[in-house]
C-alpha cells in the first residue's frame, strides 16, 4: 500500500560494522541506557522491543478486584506509554521503583492496620467512604482468611518487580565478545529482521486497525473504522503518501489506542461505573462494558466477572493492546532507521551496510516500455541495486489480480446480495447483472467503480451504526417499510457481518485503484520512446516466460473443462431441494443442449452462444423472482397477478424460505449464473476454437524448453544461479510429465473409442432391467438390435438420447405436488379363496391387492422417491451417451490434427500384428489385447452361454443349451458361421420376449394371470418362477437377463456372413492372421511358427507350459470336476480322466482328426452334464419336498440341490438329516471351469504351434530306451575304471617288490668289501625314476624334507627299516615339478569380490556406515548361499544333466527329420559325433597315464577341465572306453536307433566328441545361463527332483498310507518295499503301470462308496461310529469323508510325473 519502505536487506561491503546506530557510536560497549544490548554471540536485541513485557505481566486490562489498585496500575500504564518516546532504561528503573513503593505501601499498611486499632477504626467498615478511597488509591485491607484473593492482589506488583529486575540485570551483563565476522553476520541478520518487522508490522497495523474498529462497534471504536476506510480509499485513489505522514498517523493511533485502553480500564472501577452506569446511553454509545462487577461491598477482595457479554467484548481490549504494540513498534523502527541513516552521514570514512528503500511504483511507465531490446551484459549487478527478479512472481500475480479486479468486484456484489438479503443489497444484484450483460463490461465496471465503492462504504457504515448497542434508540420502520427489509437490523455478532462486508468492499477498492491507474495516471504520463535496457542476466526473462507458459496452460485447461463445471452446476441447480417448475426448465435446457450435441453437432455449435445467453437471462430472472418473493407483501402480489394458489406458486418455485433455506436457494443459482457468465465471456471463444472439426491446426512438436519472449543478445555468458538450475530442472520435468500424460491420453482415448459403445449399451440395458417398465422397453429394443447389427448403432445412440431425455422430464414433472396419483389409482377387489390358488398371505403381498395401483408405475414413472436418486440412473445413461460422442469426436480431432488415418482393424496397438506375436512377452501381450476376441470370440460366446445356464437354471435356458449342442456338433467354424446369424437373431428376439414377460400386464386392469385363476391348476409359486412366467406375486427376476445381453458377440471376429466387407478381409488377415480350424496341419510342409521346444526366451517358456503341459492340467481339472461332486455325472468325469491319463501320450502323437474325435466327445459329455443338471433343477427346486420324502436315492445319485435362491427355505429343508441336500456338491461351477479348459485345449490342438509338440513327442517315442543304453554305458565305464585301478595297484605292488629286492642286494654288496670308517654317515640315496623321468628336485623345495633328513640318520640303518627308505611312488611323483595353479574360487569369494568393492576405512566409526556394511555383507552372504546351493544341486545331477543334453540333441535331429518327412535309419545320429579311435593296448594305456600332457577329463561339457598349453588338439574321441563286454550287454535292445556305431560311449563322452552344433540349441543354452539366481536355483531344484523322482513317488505312496491307514491303500507300500526297492538298477515299466492302474481303481472304488444310499453312509450310522477306529468301512478305506481322495490325487500326479520323466529320459522301455 505504501511504496516507501524504511529498510530492506542488502549486501554489505564489509563484514565489519563501523556505525550501528542502535547501541552507541563506534561500536563501543553499550550501556544500560542504550537502545539495544548485545548478546554473547554478537547478536543485539533492542531492549525497547522487550520493555512491554513487565507491563503485560502486570495485567493492564485484567482488573485486580480492589478499588485502589487500578489507579496504581494506571500510573504504571502511563509509564508504559513512555514506550513511544523511548527511554527504555529509565522506564525499567521507574517500574522497579514503583513496584517497590507499592509493595512497601502494602506491607506497611497491613502492619499498621493490624498493630494500630485506631487506623482500623478510622477506615471504618468495608463499605465506608475511606475504605473505598483507600482501595482506589491502591491499598486495601487483606483478608487472611481468603488467601487466594490476597495473593491475587499482591502478585502483580511482585511480578513487575521481578520482571523489571531481570531486564535490568540482562542489560548490564550482555557484553559483546564476538569478532568482526560474527558482528557482520549479526548486522546482516539484524537488517533482515528490521526489514521483515517493518513489512509485516505495517500490514498487521492496518489489519488490527480494521479489527479494532469492527470488533465492538461504538463511537470510540468508530475512529479506527473511519481511519481504515480512509486509508484504503486513499490507497485506491493513488494519492501521494509520505513516510512522515504514516509515522505521524501511527503515533496518533498509538496515543488514541492507549487512551482508549485507559478509559476501558478506568471504567472497571466502581467510581466510574457509578458515574456512567452500563445501561445508560453514553456507556453503550462509547462501548464501555462492565467486565468487573461490584455488587457486594462487604467482600471487596472478591473478583466477580460479568460473563453475560458476547465474546467480542472480551476480545476487543486484546486487539487494542496488539494495535498499540504494533504502532509503537513501527514508530520505534522508524526512529531506529533515522538514527542509522544519521550515523551513516556522520561516518563517511567507514563502510556502512547499504539500507535502501523500496522503489517507487513504476507500473505506469512499465506499460509503455514493452517494446525494447534487452542486452544481457553479465552477472555482476551493482551491489546497491535491487534485482528486479526478486519480486517478479508476486508482482505478476498482483498485476493479474488488478487486471481482473472487475470480475472479483462483480462476484463480490453477487455474493453480498445473496448472503445478506435486503432491498439495499438487491441493488447490488441488479447492478452486477446489468454489468454482466453489457458488451463492454470492463469499461462499464471501471466507470461505476467510484459509485460502487461509495455505495459499499455506505452499506458498511449503516451496518456499523446498527451494529452498535443502540437498539432501543434506533428506528425499526420508516413509514410503511420495515427497516429489516433494508437489512438494517442488529445482528448477534456485528463484527462478523462487518468483517465479511469489508472483505467484499476490498474488491471495490481494488477496482477503483485499477480505474485510477488506467484512466488518470496513464493520461498524465507522456508516451515513452523505445528504450534499450541492459539487465544483469536472463533469470527474470526466464521466470517471466515460465509464468507465461503456466498461464497459457491454466487458461487452456479452463477453456477445455469449464463447460464440464457448468454441466455439473446444471445438475446441482436442478436437483437441489424440492423439484419445482423452474428447476425442470433448467433440466430441459440442459437435456436440449446434450441432445443437440449428440444428434446434430454442427447445429449445436451454431446455437451454443445463444444457449448460454438464454441460460444467463433465465437464471437472472429466476434469481430476481426468488429474491423478491421473500419480501413482505410479494406473495400477495403474485397471487393477485397470476391467480394461482400458494401450492401452485410453490410448484413454480416461488415460496418464502427460512434464512438457511433462502441462502441455499439463492446461492446455488447465483453461482450457476456466475459459472455460465464466465463460460460465455471468457471460455466460449477458445472452446469453440478447440472443438472445431473443420478447421483444425496442425500439431506442433512440444518445445524442449520455454521460448524466450524477447530478443536477447549475450555478450558475456551468464552463469546460471541456483534457482535458475532448479527452474531448468522443473521445466524438463514438466515437459517429461506432459509427454507422458499425452501418451496416456492417446492410449486411453483409443481404448475408450473401441469399448465406449459396449459400456453404453451394457449400462443402458442394466438400467432398463433394474427399472422394468414399458418406457424402458424401447431402450432394450434399440440396444438389443444395435450390438449384433452394426448399422443400427448410431441410430440407437441418437434415439436413446432423445428417449432418455423424455423419460427424465416425465419423471421430474411427476414429482410436482399438483400431480396426485390418488385421484386416478385403481383399487382391485380380492377374489374368493376358491377363485385363486394364492394363499391368504400371498394374496396380501400381491401387487394387485396390497394397495392402490398407480397406472403410471407400469409405464416407469413413480412418485415419492428422492429426486436425484430416482432419476440418476437415466441421467447417467444420458451422460454416458454424450461421453460416447465426446470420445468419437475427440479421436476424429486428434487424427485430423496429426494427419492420421483411422486404422482398418479395431485395435489398441496399431503397430502390432501377427508377425510380432513371437517377438517377446510384451509383443505377445499387445497382440492378444488387440485380437483376443478375434481369435477366441467363438469360445467366449460358448462360455457366456454356459454362464447363462448356470446363473438362471430354469426352463428358459434349456433353449440355450439346445442351441449350444447344435452349434458344437457342427465342429467346424465354417459350418458354425452359416448357423451364427440365425442364433444371433434368436438371442435378440428371445431377450425381448423375456423382457416383455417381466413387464407383464398393466396391474391397473385388476386382472390376474390365468395360472392364478383356480386351485385346480397345478401351478405353485416355485413352478411359476422356474418357468419364468409373469406373476403379480412372484415377479420374474429381470436382472438375470443381464447375463444374456452381452452374449451376442461382436460381429467382427466371426466368419461369414458376419465378417467385415471383402476389402477389409485382407487387412484383417494380414494384421491378425488366419482364424481357421484346419485339420490337416501336419500335411503342410511349412510351419509358419518358430520352434519353441528348446526355450530361447521367456515367451518360449510360456508356450511350452501352454502347448505341452496344458493337456495334463486340463486332465487335473477334469479329475477335480468329477471328484468334488459325488454323483453319477462325476463318475463319468473320473473314468474319462483315467483313460486319457493312461493313453493320453499316445493320443497326443496322433493326427488332429484322431485327437479331436475323442476330445469332442469329452466336450459333448460335459455339455450333456450341464444341460441335464439344468433339467433336473425342476426336481431340486420345485419338487424338492416330494423328492426328499420319497426319492432320496435320486437326490443322492444325481446330487440334486437348488442353486438358485428364493425357491424354498434352506433351514426347513435341512431338518431331515438322513436325506440332507448336498449343498456343497451342487451347481455347475466346476462343469463350467472344465468346459473352459476343454475349449482352450481344443484350440491348442488346432494350432500350428502344437505341431512342434507333436513332433517332439514322436521323437521321444523313438528314444524310449535310449537312456537305458546311456546308463548301461556309464555303468560299464565305471566297472572298467575299477578294473583298471585294480590292475594299476597290482603293477605298482610288483614294482615296489622289485625295488626292495634290488636295494637289499645293493646294501649287502656295500657292506661286504668296505670298512666302516669310509662310509658316509649320512648317505643320500639317489632315486632312479623309471621311464626316463627327470632328475629329483632339491630337498629345500619339499616341506617334508627336514623331517625326512632328520629321520634318515637315525632310522635308515637301524634294524631292518632301511629296506623301506624310498619305496613310495608318491614321493617320486611329488618330485615332478608342477606349476602352482590358482585354486577355484568359491561362490562366496566371487560374491564378495563383486559386491564389496565399495566402502572405505574412513567410515569405521560411523554407525550408519557400519549398519550399511552389515546389510551389504548379509546380502552378499545370501547371494553366495544361493549360488553355492545351485552349484551343489547341479553337481548332484551332473550325470542326469549330461544324459538330458544328449537326448535333447538327438531329439532335435530326429524332430527335424520327422518334420521334413525323411527316412529314419540307424546312422541318423552317427553324424553328430566323431568316430571313436581304436582301443590301444593295455601297455599304451599305462604309458598314457604317466604322460605329462594329460587328457581331458570327461566330466561333462559344463565342467570339463581346460586343456594344458602345448598339448595337441584331439582328433578322435576324448577317451576310448569301448569294451567287448559292453557291446554284449547292450545287444539285447530292440529299439531302432539304440545301437549306433558309438553306442558304447557315455553321455559325457558323447558331448566331448560332439561334432555338430545347432544355433537354436546354443541360443537356448545362453538363455538358461542368463537367468537370475532365484530362477537358476528353482531350475536346479527341479532337476534334482526329476533325477530322483522315484524317491518322491515312494515317499508319497507311504505318506498316503500313513494318512489314510486303510486296507485298500496298503497294497502299494508292500509293492514298494518288496518289488521297487529291490529292483536293480531301477523298477521296470511293469511296476509303474501296476501302481498307476491300482491307484486309479482305488479312486473309483472309493468314489463309488461315497454315495449316501449305502447303509453305512447314513447320518445316524456315521454319528454312532464317529471316533471308533474299528468301524469296518473305516478299516477298509471305504468311509464317506470330505477328504477321501485328496492324497490319492497327489499320488496319481506324482506317478504320472515320474512316468513322463522316464519317457523323456528314454528309460520307460527297457526292451
TrEMBL record:
Per the record, the domain of life is: Eukaryota
Q: Which chain regions cross the lipid bilayer?
A: 94-116, 158-175, 195-216, 222-237, 244-267, 311-331, 394-414, 420-437, 444-466, 498-516, 558-578, 584-603, 610-629, 662-683, 747-766, 772-789, 796-814, 870-888, 931-949, 955-971, 983-1005, 1106-1124, 1131-1148, 1163-1184, 1191-1208, 1228-1251, 1603-1624, 1631-1649
Locate the compositionally biased regions of type Acidic residues: 1367-1376
**Which keywords, in A-to-Z order, does the entry hold?**
Membrane, Transmembrane, Transmembrane helix
Q: What's a Pfam family this protein contains? A: Piezo_TM1-24
Task: State where composition is biased (Basic and acidic residues).
Answer: 1304-1321
What GO molecular-function term can you cite, just one? mechanosensitive monoatomic ion channel activity
Protein name, per record: Piezo-type mechanosensitive ion channel component
Give the organism, scientific name. Answer: Accipiter nisus
Amino acid at each position: 500500500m505504501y511504496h516507501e519502505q524504511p529498510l530492506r536487506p542488502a549486501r554489505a561491503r564489509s563484514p565489519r560494522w563501523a556505525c550501528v546506530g542502535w547501541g552507541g557510536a563506534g561500536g563501543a560497549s553499550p550501556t544500560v541506557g542504550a537502545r539495544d544490548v548485545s548478546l554473547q554471540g554478537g547478536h543485539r536485541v533492542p531492549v525497547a522491543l522487550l520493555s512491554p513485557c513487565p507491563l503485560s505481566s502486570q495485567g493492564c486490562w485484567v482488573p485486580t478486584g480492589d478499588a485502589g489498585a487500578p489507579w496504581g496500575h494506571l500510573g504504571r500504564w502511563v509509564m508504559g506509554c513512555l514506550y513511544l518516546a523511548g527511554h527504555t532504561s529509565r522506564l525499567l528503573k521507574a517500574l522497579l521503583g514503583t513496584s517497590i513503593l507499592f509493595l512497601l505501601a502494602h506491607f506497611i499498611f497491613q502492619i499498621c492496620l493490624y498493630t494500630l486499632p485506631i487506623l482500623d477504626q478510622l477506615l471504618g467498615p468495608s463499605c465506608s467512604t475511606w475504605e473505598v478511597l483507600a482501595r482506589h488509591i491502591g491499598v486495601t485491607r487483606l483478608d487472611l482468611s481468603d488467601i487466594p484473593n490476597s495473593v491475587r492482589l499482591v502478585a502483580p506488583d511482585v511480578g513487575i518487580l521481578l520482571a523489571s529486575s531481570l531486564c535490568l540485570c540482562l542489560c548490564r551483563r550482555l557484553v559483546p565478545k564476538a569478532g568482526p565476522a560474527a558482528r557482520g553476520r549479526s548486522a546482516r541478520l539484524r537488517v533482515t529482521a528490521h526489514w521483515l518487522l517493518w513489512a509485516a508490522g505495517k500490514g498487521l497495523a492496518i489489519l488490527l486497525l480494521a479489527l479494532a474498529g469492527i470488533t465492538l462497534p461504538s463511537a470510540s471504536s468508530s475512529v479506527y473504522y473511519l481511519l481504515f476506510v480512509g486509508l484504503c480509499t486513499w490507497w485506491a485513489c493513488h494519492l501521494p503518501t509520505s513516510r512522515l505522514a504514516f509515522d505521524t498517523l501511527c503515533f496518533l493511533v498509538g496515543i488514541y489506542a492507549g487512551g482508549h485502553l485507559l478509559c476501558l480500564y478506568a471504567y472497571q472501577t466502581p467510581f466510574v461505573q457509578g458515574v456512567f452506569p452500563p445501561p445508560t446511553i453514553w456507556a453503550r454509545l462509547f462501548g464501555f462494558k462492565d467486565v468487573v462487577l461490584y455488587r457486594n461491598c462487604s467482600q471487596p477482595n472478591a473478583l466477580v466477572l460479568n460473563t453475560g457479554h458476547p465474546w467480542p467484548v472480551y476480545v476487543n481490549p486484546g486487539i487494542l493492546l496488539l494495535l498499540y504494540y504494533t504502532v509503537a513498534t513501527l514508530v520505534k523502527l522508524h526512529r531506529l532507521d533515522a538514527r542509522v541513516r544519521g550515523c551513516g552521514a556522520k561516518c563517511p570514512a567507514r563502510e556502512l551496510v547499504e539500507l535502501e528503500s523500496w522503489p517507487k511504483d513504476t507500473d505506469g511507465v512499465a506499460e509503455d516500455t514493452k517494446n525494447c531490446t534487452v542486452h544481457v551484459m553479465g552477472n555482476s549487478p551493482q551491489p546497491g541495486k535491487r534485482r528486479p527478479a526478486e519480486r517478479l512472481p508476486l508482482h505478476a500475480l498482483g498485476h493479474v489480480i488488478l487486471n481482473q479486479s472487475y470480475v472479483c468486484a462483480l462476484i463480490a456484489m453477487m455474493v453480498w446480495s445473496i448472503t445478506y438479503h435486503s432491498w439495499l443489497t438487491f441493488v447490488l444484484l441488479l447492478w452486477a447483472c446489468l454489468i454482466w450483460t453489457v458488451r463492454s463490461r470492463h469499461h462499464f465496471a471501471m466507470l461505476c467503480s467510484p459509485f460502487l465503492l461509495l455505495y459499499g462504504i455506505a452499506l458498511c457504515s449503516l451496518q456499523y451504526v446498527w451494529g452498535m448497542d443502540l437498539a432501543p434508540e434506533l428506528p425499526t420502520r420508516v413509514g410503511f417499510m420495515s427497516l429489516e427489509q433494508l437489512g438494517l437490523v442488529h445482528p448477534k455478532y456485528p463484527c462478523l457481518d462487518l468483517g465479511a462486508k469489508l472483505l467484499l468492499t476490498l474488491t471495490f477498492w481494488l477496482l477503483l485503484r485499477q480505474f485510477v491507474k488506467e484512466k488518470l495516471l496513464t493520461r498524465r504520463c507522456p508516451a515513452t520512446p523505445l528504450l534499450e535496457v541492459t539487465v544483469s542476466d536472463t533469470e527474470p526473462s526466464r521466470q517471466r516466460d515460465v509464468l507465461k507458459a503456466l498461464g497459457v496452460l491454466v487458461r487452456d485447461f479452463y477453456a477445455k473443462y469449464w463447460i464440464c463445471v457448468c454441466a455439473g452446476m446444471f445438475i446441482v441447480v436442478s436437483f437441489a431441494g424440492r423439484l419445482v417448475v423452474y428447476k425442470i426448465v433448467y433440466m430441459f435446457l440442459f437435456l436440449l443442449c446434450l441432445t443437440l450435441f449428440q444428434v446434430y453437432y454442427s447445429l449445436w455449435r451454431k446455437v451454443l452462444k445463444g444457449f448460454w445467453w438464454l441460460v444467463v437471462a433465465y437464471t437472472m430472472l429466476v434469481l430476481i423472482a426468488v429474491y423478491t418473493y421473500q419480501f413482505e407483501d410479494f406473495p400477495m402480489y403474485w397471487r393477485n397477478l397470476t391467480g394461482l394458489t400458494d401450492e401452485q406458486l410453490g410448484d413454480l418455485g416461488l415460496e418464502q424460505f427460512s434464512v438457511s433455506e433462502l441462502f441455499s436457494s439463492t446461492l446455488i443459482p447465483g453461482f450457476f449464473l456466475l459459472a455460465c457468465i464466465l463460460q460465455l465471456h471468457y471460455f466460449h471463444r477458445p472452446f469453440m476454437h478447440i472443438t472445431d472439426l473443420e478447421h483444425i491446426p496442425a500439431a506442433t512438436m512440444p518445445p524442449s524448453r520455454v521460448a524466450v519472449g524477447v530478443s536477447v543478445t549475450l555478450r558475456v555468458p551468464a552463469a546460471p544461479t541456483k534457482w535458475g538450475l532448479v527452474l531448468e530442472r522443473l521445466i524438463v520435468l514438466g515437459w517429461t510429465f506432459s509427454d507422458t500424460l499425452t501418451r496416456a491420453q492417446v492410449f486411453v482415448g483409443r481404448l475408450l473409442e473401441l469399448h465406449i459403445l459396449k459400456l453404453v449399451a451394457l449400462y443402458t440395458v442394466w438400467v432398463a432391467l433394474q427399472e422394468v417398465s414399458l418406457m424402458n422397453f424401447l431402450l432394450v429394443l434399440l440396444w438389443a438390435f444395435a450390438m449384433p447389427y452394426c448399422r443400427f448403432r448410431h441410430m440407437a445412440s441418437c434415439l436413446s438420447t432423445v428417449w432418455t431425455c423424455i423419460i427424465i422430464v416425465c419423471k421430474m414433472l411427476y414429482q410436482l405436488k399438483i400431480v396426485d396419483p390418488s385421484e386416478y389409482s385403481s383399487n382391485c377387489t380380492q377374489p374368493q379363496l376358491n377363485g385363486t390358488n394364492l394363499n391368504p398371505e400371498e394374496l396380501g403381498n400381491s401387487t394387485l391387492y396390497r394397495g392402490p395401483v398407480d397406472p403410471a408405475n407400469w409405464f416407469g414413472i413413480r412418485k415419492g422417491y428422492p429426486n436425484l436418486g430416482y432419476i440418476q440412473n437415466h441421467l447417467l445413461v444420458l451422460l454416458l451417451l454424450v461421453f460416447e460422442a465426446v470420445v468419437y469426436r475427440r479421436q476424429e480431432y486428434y487424427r485430423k490434427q496429426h494427419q492420421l488415418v483411422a486404422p482398418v482393424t479395431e485395435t489398441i496397438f496399431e503397430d502390432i500384428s501377427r508377425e510380432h506375436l513371437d517377438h517377446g512377452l510384451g509383443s505377445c501381450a499387445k497382440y492378444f489385447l488387440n485380437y483376443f476376441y478375434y481369435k477366441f470370440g467363438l469360445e467366449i460366446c460358448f462360455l457366456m452361454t454356459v454362464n447363462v445356464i448356470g446363473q438362471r437354471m430354469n426352463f428358459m435356458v434349456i433353449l440355450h443349451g439346445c442351441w449350444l449342442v447344435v452349434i458344437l456338433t457342427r465342429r467346424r467354424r465354417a459350418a458354425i458361421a452359416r448357423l451364427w446369424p440365425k442364433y444371433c437373431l434368436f438371442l435378440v428376439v428371445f431377450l425381448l420376449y423375456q423382457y416383455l414377460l417381466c413387464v407383464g400386464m398393466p396391474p391397473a386392469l385388476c386382472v390376474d394371470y390365468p395360472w392364478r385363476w383356480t386351485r385346480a391348476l397345478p401351478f405353485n409359486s416355485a413352478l411359476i418362477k422356474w418357468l419364468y412366467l409373469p406373476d403379480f406375486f412372484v415377479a420374474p427376476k429381470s436382472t438375470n437377463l443381464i447375463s444374456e445381453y452381452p452374449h451376442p458377440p461382436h460381429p467382427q471376429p466371426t466368419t461369414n456372413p458376419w465378417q467385415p466387407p471383402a476389402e477389409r478381409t485382407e487387412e484383417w488377415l494380414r494384421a491378425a492372421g488366419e482364424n481357421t480350424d484346419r485339420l490337416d496341419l501336419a500335411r503342410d510342409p511349412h510351419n509358419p511358427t518358430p520352434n519353441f521346444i528348446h526355450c530361447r526366451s521367456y515367451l518360449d517358456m510360456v508356450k511350452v507350459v501352454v502347448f505341452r503341459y496344458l493337456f495334463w492340467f486340463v486332465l487335473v481339472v477334469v479329475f477335480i470336476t468329477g471328484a468334488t461332486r459325488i454323483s453319477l455325472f462325476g463318475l463319468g468325469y473320473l473314468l474319462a480322466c483315467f483313460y486319457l491319463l493312461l493313453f493320453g501320450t499316445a493320443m497326443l502323437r496322433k493326427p488332429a482328426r484322431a485327437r479331436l474325435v475323442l476330445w469332442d466327445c469329452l466336450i459333448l459329455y460335459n455339455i450333456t452334464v450341464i444341460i441335464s443338471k439344468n433339467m433336473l433343477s425342476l426336481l431340486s427346486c420345485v419338487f424338492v419336498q416330494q423328492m426328499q420324502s420319497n426319492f432320496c436315492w435320486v437326490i443322492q445319485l444325481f446330487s440334486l440341490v437348488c442353486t438358485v435362491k428364493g425357491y424354498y427355505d434352506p433351514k426347513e429343508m435341512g431338518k431331515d438329516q438322513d436325506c440332507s441336500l448336498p449343498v456343497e456338491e451342487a451347481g455347475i461351477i466346476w462343469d463350467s471351469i472344465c468346459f473352459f479348459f476343454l475349449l482352450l485345449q481344443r484350440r491348442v490342438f488346432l494350432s500350428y504351434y502344437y505341431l512342434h509338440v507333436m513332433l517332439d513327442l514322436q521323437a521321444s517315442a523313438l528314444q524310449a530306451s535310449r537312456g537305458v543304453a546311456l546308463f548301461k554305458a556309464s555303468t560299464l565305464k565305471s566297472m572298467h575304471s575299477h578294473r583298471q585301478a585294480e590292475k594299476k595297484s597290482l603293477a605298482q605292488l610288483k614294482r615296489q617288490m622289485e625295488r626292495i629286492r634290488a636295494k637289499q642286494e645293493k646294501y649287502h654288496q656295500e657292506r661286504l668289501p668296505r670298512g666302516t670308517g669310509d662310509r658316509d654317515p649320512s648317505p643320500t640315496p639317489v632315486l632312479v625314476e623309471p621311464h626316463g623321468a627327470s632328475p629329483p628336485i632339491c630337498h629345500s623345495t619339499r616341506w617334508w624334507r627336514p623331517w625326512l633328513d632328520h629321520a634318515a640318520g637315525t632310522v635308515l640303518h637301524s634294524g631292518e627299516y632301511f629296506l623301506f627308505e624310498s619305496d613310495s611312488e608318491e614321493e617320486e611323483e611329488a618330485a615332478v615339478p608342477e606349476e602352482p595353479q590358482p585354486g577355484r574360487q568359491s561362490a562366496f569369494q566371487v560374491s564378495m569380490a563383486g559386491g564389496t568393492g565399495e566402502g572405505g576405512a574412513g567410515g569405521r566409526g560411523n554407525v550408519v556406515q557400519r549398519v550399511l556394511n552389515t546389510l551389504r555383507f548379509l546380502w552378499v552372504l545370501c547371494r553366495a548361499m544361493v549360488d553355492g546351493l545351485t552349484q551343489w544341486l547341479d553337481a548332484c545331477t551332473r550325470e542326469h544333466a549330461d544324459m538330458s543334453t544328449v537326448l535333447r540333441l538327438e531329439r532335435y535331429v530326429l524332430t527335424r527329420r520327422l518334420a521334413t518327412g525323411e527316412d529314419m535309419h540307424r546312422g541318423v545320429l552317427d553324424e553328430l559325433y566323431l568316430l571313436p579311435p581304436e582301443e590301444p593296448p593295455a601297455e599304451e594305456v599305462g604309458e598314457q597315464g604317466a604322460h605329462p600332457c594329460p587328457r581331458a577329463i570327461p566330466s561333462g561339457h559344463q565342467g570339463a577341465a581346460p586343456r594344458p598349453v602345448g598339448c595337441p588338439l584331439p582328433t578322435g574321441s576324448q577317451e576310448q572306453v569301448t569294451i567287448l563286454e559292453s557291446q554284449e550287454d547292450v545287444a539285447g535292445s530292440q529299439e531302432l536307433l539304440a545301437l549306433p556305431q558309438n553306442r558304447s560311449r557315455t553321455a559325457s563322452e558323447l558331448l566331448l566328441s560332439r561334432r555338430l552344433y545347432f544355433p537354436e540349441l546354443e541360443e537356448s543354452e545362453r538363455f538358461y545361463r542368463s537367468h537370475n539366481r532365484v530362477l537358476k536355483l528353482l531350475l536346479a531344484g527341479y532337476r534334482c527332483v526329476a533325477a530322483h523322482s522315484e524317491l518322491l513317488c515312494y515317499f508319497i505312496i507311504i505318506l498316503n498310507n500313513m494318512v489314510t491307514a486303510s486296507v485298500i491303500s496298503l497294497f502299494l507300500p508292500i509293492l514298494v518295499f518288496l518289488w521297487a526297492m529291490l529292483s536293480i538298477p531301477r523298477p521296470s515299466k511293469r511296476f509303474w503301470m501296476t501302481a498307476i492302474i491300482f491307484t486309479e481303481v482305488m479312486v473309483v472304488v472309493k468314489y463309488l462308496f461315497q454315495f449316501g444310499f449305502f447303509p453305512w453312509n447314513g447320518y445316524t450310522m456315521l454319528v454312532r461310529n464317529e471316533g471308533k477306529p474299528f468301524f469296518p468301512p473305516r478299516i477298509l478305506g471305504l468311509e464317506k469323508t470330505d477328504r477321501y481322495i485328496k492324497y490319492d490325487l497327489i499320488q496319481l500326479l506324482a506317478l504320472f510325473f515320474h512316468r513322463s520323466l522316464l519317457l523323456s529320459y528314454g528309460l520307460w522301455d527297457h526292451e
